[in-house]
């Protein structure tokens, strides 16, 4: 990989569709930034995710709909440039009315993504595992989904609908909404904040399209393992904020140590080495273009 991916967005979209069609569980970690998307690929995962909460947090903002469609699309393009994995993105509520949702679909297609999900909250939205969510009327979300379907230019671009209704209206209403969104053209469903395996099973029984299980930490949903999700018949296991939480935990620990000890010496065993970073970035691959790029010897132990 040099400067860009080896594959086209169309190829990655087809790859995601084909992978979902196998019926096997697809594990999808959330990328913190373009570099971690490459790391996700190196560790053998077959798809990556861009969380709206992570993208907002990266800007120092809460996940309440403050980011814009163009900000999200710009980060998406930076990410899809460096990985051959299909990337799914969180498009919140579509950033406005159904017409805004339609524009969002085309922005995300242009950014090289393999798909997106739209949710049925109203603005200002909030994290799906917090109380006090407000839902859009079902028919309004149906219009949102239809607008997205009409705007899609590549039929392989995956349009997923997320429903937050479980925590607001109850499980039966969430299932009814999901069915309406499928009838409106959604290719897959993201049922947010399910409470236990029985609820996952009820959704799987009722809805006959690919289903996503959101395994975010410190939320309302139990952290089911892959075997449980496979037995339940789910198609995607999503780990949206895991890498952000790990990175921020390590950063806080490191800063405390640096402040207390006045040196980072004791932190070295916990750091990614210079040589590993350069390997991940593919420094040596660039020498074919410019021999001056990688004409150095790394210091010992780096």
What is the secondary structure topology, with strand pairs?
Blueprint: H1 9-21, E1 26-29, H2 34-42, E2 48-50, H3 52-58, H4 69-80, E3 87-90, H5 98-110, E4 115-119, H6 138-151, E5 158-163, H7 166-169, H8 171-183, E6 188-191, H9 197-206, E7 212-214, H10 226-232, E8 236-239, H11 242-261, H12 274-281
Parallel strand pairs: 1-8, 2-3, 3-4, 4-5, 5-6, 7-8
Helix pairs in contact: 4-5, 5-6
Describe the overall structure.
The protein is an alpha/beta fold and 302 residues long. The strands form 2 sheets. A 5-stranded parallel sheet has the order 2-3-4-5-6. The model has no long low-confidence stretch (mean pLDDT 93). 43% of the residues lie in helices and 11% in strands. The protein is built from 12 helices and 8 strands. The radius of gyration is 20 Å and the shape is globular.
Question: Features of this protein?
Answer:
alpha/beta, 3-stranded parallel sheet, 302 residues, single chain
Concise description?
The protein has helices spanning about 10-20, 35-40, 50-60, 70-80, 100-110, 140-150, 165-170, 170-185, 195-205, 225-230, 240-260, 275-280, and strands at about 25-30, 50, 85-90, 115-120, 160-165, 190, 210-215, 235-240. The protein has about 300 residues and is an alpha/beta fold. The radius of gyration is 20 Å and the shape is globular.
């Amino acid at each position: 990989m040099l400067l860009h991916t080896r594959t086209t967005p169309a190829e990655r979209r087809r790859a995601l569709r084909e992978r979902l069609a196998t019926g096997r569980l697809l594990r999808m970690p959330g990328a913190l930034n373009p570099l971690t998307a490459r790391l996700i690929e190196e560790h053998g995962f077959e798809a990556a995710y861009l969380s709206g909460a992570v993208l907002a947090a990266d800007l120092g903002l809460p996940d309440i709909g403050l980011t814009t469609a163009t900000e999200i699309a710009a980060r998406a393009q930076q990410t899809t440039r460096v990985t051959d994995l299909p990337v799914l993105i969180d498009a919140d509520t579509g950033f406005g009315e159904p017409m805004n949702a339609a524009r969002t679909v085309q922005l995300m297609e242009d950014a090289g993504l393999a798909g997106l999900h739209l949710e049925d909250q109203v603005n200002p939205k909030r994290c799906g595992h917090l109380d006090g969510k407000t839902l859009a009327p079902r028919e309004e979300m149906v219009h949102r989904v239809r607008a997205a379907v009409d705007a899609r230019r590549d039929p392989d671009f995956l349009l997923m609908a997320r429903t937050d209704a479980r925590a607001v209206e109850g499980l039966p209403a969430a299932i009814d909404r999901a069915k309406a969104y499928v009838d409106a053209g959604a290719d897959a469903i993201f049922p947010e904040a399910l409470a236990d395996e029985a609820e996952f099973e009820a959704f799987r029984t009722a809805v006959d399209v690919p289903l996503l299980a959101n395994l975010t930490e410190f939320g309302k949903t139990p952290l089911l393992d892959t075997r449980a999700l496979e037995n339940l018949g789910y198609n995607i296991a999503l780990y949206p904020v895991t890498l952000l939480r790990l990175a921020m935990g390590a950063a806080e620990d490191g800063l405390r140590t640096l402040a207390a000890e006045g040196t980072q010496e004791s932190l070295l065993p916990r750091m990614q080495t210079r040589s590993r970073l350069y390997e991940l970035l593919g420094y040596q691959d660039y020498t074919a273009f410019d021999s001056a790029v990688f004409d150095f010897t790394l210091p010992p132990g780096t």
